[in-house]
Amino acid sequence: MQDLAMGQKLVITNNIRVKETYSEQFAVLFLDVSYLAVLIAVRDHVHEGFRLLTHPLAGSMKPNQTPYRSIMLEKAAGLDYRSVELIESCILTAEKFQRNRPTPDWNEKCLQDFRTVDLSFLKHAERVAVWAL
User: Fold this and answer.
1) pLDDT confidence of residue 99
2) Which of 37, 36, 76 is nearest to 53 (CA)?
3) Which of 4, 32, 70, 101 has the maximal Cβ count within 10 Å?
């Protein structure tokens, strides 16, 4: 992925529908990984100078209910400590949920529904600009 200038947006996702919808509008990093691995990739980008624009655990589903997560960030001037604290906390929460009850092996119909829900969360966040983190 090319280097982004300060203020440019990046979406990190494991949802192919998000990649297809937003790849013309934003830089999109599509990863074929788990929900937790998306959070870890986001954390790595936060440590490299990105700031969270959407909450990593946004929405009404617990981290062990859905396999998909899409998170919007923007290139910042430096390390955003609030983003660091938030993503680290979200990783711990997701790990706890996975330990207590792992994500089920959903059938394709359910997976399609989860991709749609994840996409809708990002569409809403885009409409309201950025979430107050």
Assistant:
1) 95
2) 76
3) 70
